[in-house]
Amino acid sequence: MTPHVQQLADRFPDIPAAVLLKVDLLRLGMRVDSPVGSRHYHHHDEQGQRTLPDPRAHIQGSIRLPEGPQVFVAHNPNSPYVLRGGPEGLSLAVNVNGSLEPVCAVEPGPALNWTSARTSRGTPMATVFSPSLGGACGPIAAFLLRHCEFAVTGEECRFCSWVRMGKSIEMRPDVDDMRETLRAIRGEQGSVGYLAFSGGSLYNRTREADAFLAYMDAVRGTGEALPPTVAAIQALDEGDSQRLRAAGFDYVCYSMEVWDDAVWEEVLPGKARSLGRAGWMARLEAAVDVFGPGRVLCNFVAGVETAVPGVYETAAAAADATLAGMRWCYDRGIYPKYAVWIVSGGARFADREPAPLDYYARLITGRQRLFEEFHLPVPHTDCAGCLTQSLEADLALLAPARFARGAAAYPWQTAHGHA
Question: pTM (2 decimals)?
Answer without folding.
Answer: 0.93
